[in-house]
Amino acid sequence: MSYRLGTEASGLPLIAAKGLSIKVADGSTTEVAIVVSDGTVLPQKSAFSDEQMKQAELKKADMSSVRKRNGMKVVFRGLTYTVAHNSKRKQKLQLLKTVTGVIAPAQMTALMGPSGSGKSTLLDVLAGRKTAGELTGTVLVGGKPPSRKFMRRYTGYVEQFDTLVDNLTVQEMLAYTAEMKLEMGVGMAEKRARVEALLRQLALEPCRNVRIGGSMQRGISGALLRPPAACPAQQEADRNAKRCNIGIALLSDPRLIFLDEPTSGLDSYTSHEVMEMVMALTRTNNSITVCATIHSPSPQTFGLFDKLIILLSGRIVYFGNNGVDAIDYFERRFPELDRMPTSGANANCAEWLLSVTTQADRSGRADEYADAYQESALFQENISLLSQGRGTESRISITTIQELAVKQGTVTPLWWGLWILVKYRLVSNYRDPKFLLGRIVDKLLCCVVLIILYAGRGKDASPDNLINISSLLYMYTVLPGFAAISYMPGLVLERPLYIRERSDGLYSTITYLLSKMVEEMLVVLFVSLTVSACIFFSVGFHGQYVLFWLVYLVTISIGMVVGYVVAAWAVDLDVANGILPGYIMGLYFFTGYALRLQNLPRWIGWFHYLDFLHYAWASLMLNEFEGRPATFIGNQTFLEYYGLPQHGITKWEYLGIEFLFFIMFFILAWVALKYKKHGNR
Ligand SMILES: Nc1ncnc2c1ncn2[C@@H]1O[C@H](COP(=O)(O)OP(=O)(O)OP(=O)(O)O)[C@@H](O)[C@H]1O
Ligand SMILES: [Mg+2]
């Protein structure tokens, strides 16, 4: 490997050994970042002290305890990616156009280009994270087309926006991911050791017990930390969150790591620090394959990258060595360009490249630049690079072959995933009073109102009172329907996290859905037992309490899964809030109480068969009034007046039919969560 020397300000790669002073072009000496032989860049700008050397060794030791697998070569040929335009109907948009290149292990590859040039799209395609759109061309990892399952298990992806669990602490977040993503054979002690090594390596120890927090909640958002004076709280927060995301990507010991704008939102010092840490991964014994999109990096950060891909309007205009080679290429190929200043404030390699290519894009010369690249000797060199090592691909290790042929998208089995979700996510949610209050208070308040209004009325068997009792049974049936709305926000707001964790192979859809159900059902069990017992015994109902409780439990559970179905299908919370109340309100009219079954218009009356609230109310009515001798109107009993029971169905059968709705909506929720794609992916 060879390095060109450059000044720190220019962003060109630097190398120096202990005690070496460097003279730059203008004859002056300059302070440089120091690159030790393993590629670890020390933050100090001048001489090494013994302490610094010790720190560098510690970092290296930590990293080798985390890293065990080698990186793999990623080759992509003729990638063309097309999506349907999201606003212009029937129009197709080509986001990538015959993109060809290679990302090698032990190197840092930067993806640069103006906004909208297709950087994230290319990264997503390479990482196998595109679920929508049409992709042609090939991506080979280690010489073989990787399965989605392989990519889930053996690649790390750091998304542009942080996707972390708000209620967990930094240490818990890493431990949770470690327990989910490391093989069952890895003992707890090793999992803990890896988490500890990463906390040290990522300098996250000061905030290990601080909650991640969210937009409405303080956490590593700096409130509990005392950030360095030079570093404002928000930057400290972004830095910690970004490091935490990188830690998550590294935990599973990936072979490839993709980072989408890991430096955006960070100050230049922090960007450098974060990327230095990533670079250390590419240089340690088990070199990893790193590809990152970057936006306006500082010269120091830019200098850490070995290779550079520049995209314009979905086409590559440069793919080669970073630094002077890139500048040489553009200056030679396009002599009309102003040359890059070699000193002064404007001597910034990244900025010069970005401004040159952005100007070309804006002036409609993107294709001209892309064509020039395809006609260049550099392109031919790159094409020969693609086929290099082809012969050796058949000699890849057995482990690699097994990894590439992996059948399971998740590392751990369903039951383990469920247990870990309960252990971390459920417990952390239950720690949050807002979570519990939002699920309990509304039901308890309704219960209090019903008790105040109806206490003791169950004992009065007079025909006048029968209507009151059936009204109460109706309210008791339909109120849990409203509760369905409270189950939607969690799922919709958590969607980016769910998508990221699914793509990372942490768990399967069924595991996630079951964990959500367990989380809610524990609360529902407590609430339903309390509410139903208070109402049943204070009112003085006659039927069986167990049925009275089970109907409430099943109805509230159906509301929950209906909420999940809508939340999984709806584009956002506004749409979900529009659909669900409309559906639930519609059901209220077909229970058989608001309008008697025999009075429903014929053409739509059949709909009551599809109304789970009808079965719930009918079961409760039979439970209360069956066998009561009192007549209501004429010779009709109260039940006959409401056309009950239909087809001789018993109260338990009504409950059974209602339960079938639960199963149906549960399956629909699973299908929606698994197959409904949202966003640009
Ligand atoms: N379905 C779609 N309909 C319309 N435009 C789309 C669609 N999908 C993506 N785009 C646009 O295509 C462009 C390429 O997207 P991409 O996210 O890859 O760009 P990028 O280079 O990463 O940009 P940035 O630097 O802003 O992150 C963007 O302008 C994006 O808005
Ligand atoms: Mg992007």
From TrEMBL:
Pfam families: ABC2_membrane (PF01061), ABC_tran (PF00005)
Locations listed in the record: Membrane
Keyword Membrane: yes
InterPro entries: AAA+_ATPase, ABC2_TM, ABC_transporter-like_ATP-bd, ABCG_transporters, P-loop_NTPase
Gene Ontology cellular component list: membrane
Membrane topology reported for the UniProt record: Multi-pass membrane protein
Membrane-spanning segments: 435-454, 466-488, 521-539, 546-569, 575-596, 654-673
Signal sequence segment: none
PROSITE patterns with a match to the protein in the record: ABC_TRANSPORTER_2
Chief localisation class: membrane
GO molecular function: ABC-type transporter activity; ATP binding; ATP hydrolysis activity
Domain ABC transporter residues, every copy: 74-338
Keyword vocabulary terms for this entry: ATP-binding, Membrane, Nucleotide-binding, Transmembrane, Transmembrane helix, Transport
DNA-binding keyword on record: no
Record protein name field: ABC transporter domain-containing protein
Source organism per UniProt: Coccomyxa viridis
